[in-house]
Amino acid sequence: MNTPTDNRPAFEALGGRTPDGLFSGLPTPCYIIDEGQLVRNCEILAEVALSTGCKILLAQKAFSNYDFYPLLSGYLAGTEASGLFEARLGAEKMPQKEVHVFCAAYRDDEFDELLTHADHIVFNSVNQLKKLGGRAKRAGRSVGLRINPECSTQEGHEIYDPCAAGSRLGVTREQWNEQMTDELTDLLDGLHFHTLCEQNSDDLETTLKAVEEKFGNILPKMKWLNMGGGHHITRPDYDIPLLKKCIRGSMEKWGVGIYLEPGEAVALNAGFLAARVLDIVRNGDRQIAILDASAACHMPDVIEMPYTPPLYLADENGGEYIYRLAGPTCLSGDVIGDYGFAEPLEVGNMLLFGDMAIYTTCKNNTFNGMPLPDIWKRQRDGRLKRLTGFGYDDFKMRLGGR
Ligand SMILES: *Cc1c(COP(=O)(O)O)cnc(C)c1O
Q1: Distance between CA 301 and CA 181 in Å, rounded?
Q2: In a domain, 42, yes or no
Q3: pLDDT tens sequence across 198-207
């Protein structure tokens, strides 16, 4: 998921230059991933890992632009995957590093291949552990079970709350008591929970109390505890000392190694989506700028959450000229948000949305036959390099005829 973050540091790093001044040569729409900001994030994460002894993985579902994996592997312990393809990508592109996988339910016919890529296999249910745990163990893999501490620390976004009533994610203590046997417990090397989403360490502290209450008698038998993702560690107001206290406290109390697997925090504010104004229409009092980038296709969380993404050089105090920025598709709701500007927009202007590295390139689509944006890298020296681009064939090949 993706909600507005304090994007000011990433915008300030652009030095007030206009989007056209910075990126005039780029085709729009296009994503620009900022290497400097990735490094700043990674330095924060690596310091947490180094000073506590925990291991931090990249959750690839948020960010899997693997051209950056060689850079990230200098700071992180490995990757986390949601299934076979991400596990394979992690193994291929961050070799020598750990590959962890969690999936709500594994397929029988993929499991052997998965075992060739992944070091840690985390199961979501006792059924799955019973069915596949022995195979993972015999292949020499570290076996984990996801628990549900039934401790909701977020409000308002039930689709992002694995602790919501009736959740399918993780084993509750009640399910554990009903279904687990000593034999199955012996298969386990670790426990995993993932309950946070864009949250600070006070919510981790609260969650750990629930974990202790529900699973405190199991944890001393484990080698590791994976605290999932959702830790917004690289956000300016994140309380890192409290995170370290939580990590060290858990290590001491239960004698376990600690893993964190943030996605967002790795690439927070590390990307832009550049778009241009194609047309400006007025309906009543409302001015609407139609862009060549679509919320529905290129920033789907804007509609799913929903949220309004930060926009470079938009007037935070309202601005004299207010425009609704919207996409070029036929979906009425393909709206990015209402923004104020100090000057009127014109057809052809370039606009730059912030925090567009996460849950974007790995989540976009070609609805309406929209082209997929190029992906560019902004190097630390400011130079731009094209990583990949797409055309008609990329749209067509997903629909048949091969
Ligand atoms: C989504 C997810 C993550 C990463 O979450 P972020 O909010 O991007 O930090 C980590 N682990 C699991 C199991 C996830 O589902």
Answers
A1: 41
A2: no
A3: 999 999 999 9
CA-wise closest residue to 94 among 108, 113, 74:
74
CATH no. for residue 368?
A: 2.40.37.10
- The range of the structural domain enclosing residue 373 comes to 8-34+270-396
| 28 shares its domain with 80 | no
pLDDT given at position 1: 55
Cα 232 to middle of ligand 1, angstroms: 11
Distance CA 76, CA 59 (A): 11
Residue 188 and residue 152 share a domain: yes
Which among 335, 333, 178, 358 has a CA at the least distance from the CA of 266?
A: 358
Q: Count the domains in the chain.
A: 2
Q: Is the Cβ–Cβ distance between 147 and 138 less than 8 Å?
A: no
pLDDT at 309: 95
Q: Could you give the percent of the chain with pLDDT greater than 70?
A: 99
Of ligand 1's listed atoms, the one at least distance from the Cα of 62 is 8
Protein residue with its CA nearest to atom 1 in ligand 1: 229
Whether the CB of 59 sits within 6 Å of ligand 1: yes
Q: Which two tokens stand for residue 104?
A: 């709500």
Chain mean pLDDT for the chain:
96
Is the minimum distance from the CB of 229 to ligand 1 under 6 angstroms?
Answer: yes
| Same domain, yes or no: 257 and 298 | no
Task: Indicate which atom in ligand 1 lies nearest the CA of residue 63.
Answer: 8
Can you tell me the distance from the alpha carbon of 32 to that of 374, in angstroms, rounded to the nearest whole number?
Answer: 8
Measure Cα distances from 230 to 62, 267, 285 in Å.
11, 12, 40
Type of residue found at 12: E
Contact 329, 296 (CB under 8 A): yes
Residue 270's contacts (CB-CB under 8 Å, 6 or more residues apart) are: 10, 33, 34, 37, 38, 41, 357, 358
SS3 341: strand
Helices vs strands, H then E, count in the chain: 15, 16
